[in-house]
Amino acid sequence: MAAGQVTDKTAAVIGSGFGGLAAAIRLQSAGVQTVLYEARDKPGGRAYVYHDDGYTFDAGPTVVTAPHTLEELFELSDRKLEDYIELMEVAPMYRLIWSDGDRFDYTRDADKMIEQIRQRSEKDAEGYQKFFKYSEKVFDKGYTDLVDRPFLRFSDMLKVTPDLMKLRAERSVYKTVSKYVKDEHLRQAMSFHSLLVGGNPFQTSSIYTLIHYLERQWGVYFPRGGTHALVRALVKLFEELGGEIRLNSPVKQARLIHDNKQHEIIDGNGQQQIFDIVVSNADIHHTYDRIYGEHKVAKKRAKKLEKMDWSMSLFVLHFGTDIEYKDVAHHTILFGPRYKGLLDEIFKGTKLPEDFSLYLHVPTVTDPKLAPEGCSAGYVLAPVPHLGRADVDWETIAEDYADKIIKALEVELPDLSKHIVTRRHFTPKMFESELVAYKGSAFSVAPKLTQSAYFRPHNKDKKIPGLYFVGAGTHPGAGLPGVINSAKATVRLAMSDLTQQ
Ligand SMILES: Cc1cc2nc3c(=O)[nH]c(=O)nc-3n(C[C@H](O)[C@H](O)[C@H](O)COP(=O)(O)OP(=O)(O)OC[C@H]3O[C@@H](n4cnc5c(N)ncnc54)[C@H](O)[C@@H]3O)c2cc1C
């Protein structure tokens, strides 16, 4: 048995999102007998999958970054990721298109990036290079030093505060970018990334500019077979290690027993089982309010969470076409005519904005097998206010809203409305009902400085012994690198506690 391993302990992981899967693999690799409970019929959480009429539609994450975080999960048991899944690099990383027809290919190739910027402004080309250096520094502090480290004590926060202040972490992403480049489209091109983890570029800490460096450094990937093929690879690994996954098994209740030393889990099928520790990957509010709701302290935490700022929601439309769209990038951002105004309405407003900015995903340009031969599969998402902000009757308006989006996509996918043969959508209401996401938020607690690191819900509860968290609602936050790193931070804590018992 390797140092730090235990073999007589048991763990329940609630939820099989990327964070839950990563935690379950880490625990099982360390010898802890782990059961992974999943409420739905398939694993993956937000990375669920639909198979409609020969088309494969990934439900959530499509931009896979920081591949080493995934490789590590396999290396824990001397395996190799490439024996389970192929990650294909995507280039350009994103194509950006504005409503006035302006275009920009956001690439990993520094020369190509700088050349495109230089064509707009010599000064911005210089500014961009300075911005890149800044984002590298932020990456060194904000990612390398902090991302897989839990922040349980205020003193942990104090230790990193001088560095964060030096980097002006209190400034927003957009404000920071604006210091370096003047062209408004370039400012948008360098600042939209925080939206990918649920953060408004005008409110999210400049720490999130590290995404720029991270993508340039390590690239953007797409798994052959789609993101869910990666989920299946992780499940396979977990099962090979001896772990057990229980689908269609929503955890209804968990309670402390045996002098608070163990947790009894009761699932929706009426099964009960006792575990030494629980790692919850379910929505953090749901975990405190419902699963641990019989504990006074949990109810108190749920109330506190209700006062926090929650990320926006999304309207997601999946579509399959009877022709193949080849002349399109894998990832495209279609900026609407408004940037700040639209984001203000999404993050601070009380109704659904009339206009939208869109993220378009056409995976068949990388992996044609995701659709029948000669056809394309795609999805498009529009950031929208969460349910706590805007009281939208999604069931009534969804089809019309989808039609409006399809029309807008025709600038990039000509005659799309005539070629769609199958489609489905996912609304904020469905985030709430199917993923038990508080307020239908797509990315959990918003990634603001005042809700990050020590100020974010902790990876381990202080008062409920043996309860840990993993995933978007805890440190460091949403996005695949975030939730996979959260598993590293959380399992390190759990193993340290278990080996001391
Ligand atoms: C549409 C969309 C696109 C995105 N695109 C990207 C992207 O391209 N790149 C990127 O890095 N990130 C992206 N993100 C963000 C990223 O997908 C998420 O932050 C991440 O996948 C969340 O993982 P998680 O570990 O928090 O778990 P989740 O995916 O939230 O999964 C939680 C799981 O818990 C289960 N559960 C809940 N309650 C219970 C219960 N009581 N019992 C048992 N199970 C329960 C749920 O069914 C679910 O399976 C996207 C998100 C969305 C919604």
CATH architecture of the largest domain: 3-Layer(bba) Sandwich
- What is the total tally of β strands? 19
Structural class: alpha/beta
The biggest beta sheet is recorded as: 7 strands, mixed
Portion of residues within helices:
25-40%
CATH-assigned homologous superfamily of the largest domain: FAD/NAD(P)-binding domain
Task: Report what the structure shows.
With 501 residues, the protein is an alpha/beta fold. It folds into 3 domains: 10-39 and 248-308 and 448-500, 3-Layer(bba) Sandwich (FAD/NAD(P)-binding domain); 109-218, no CATH class; 312-438, Guanine Nucleotide Dissociation Inhibitor, domain 2. Helix content is 37%, strand content 18%. It contains 16 helices and 19 strands. It has helices at 18-29, 67-75, 110-120, 122-145, 154-166, 173-180, 184-191, 210-218, 227-240, 284-291, 296-306, 340-348, 394-409, 416-419, 428-435, 480-500, and strands at 10-14, 33-37, 49-52, 55-58, 87-89, 94-97, 103-106, 221-223, 244-246, 251-257, 262-267, 272-275, 277-280, 313-321, 331-334, 358-361, 376-384, 420-426, 467-469. The strands form 5 sheets. It has a 7-stranded mixed beta sheet. Strands 9-2-1-13-19 form a 5-stranded parallel beta sheet, with helices on one face. A hairpin with a 4-residue loop joins β10 and β11. The longest helix is centred in the N-terminal third of the chain and has 24 residues, at 122-145. It is globular. The mean pLDDT is 95. The structure holds flavin-adenine dinucleotide. Residues 14-20, 37-40, 45-47, 60-63, 196, 250-251, 281-283, 286, 291, 314, 316, 381, 435-436, 442-443, 471-472, 478-480, 483 line the site of flavin-adenine dinucleotide (FAD).
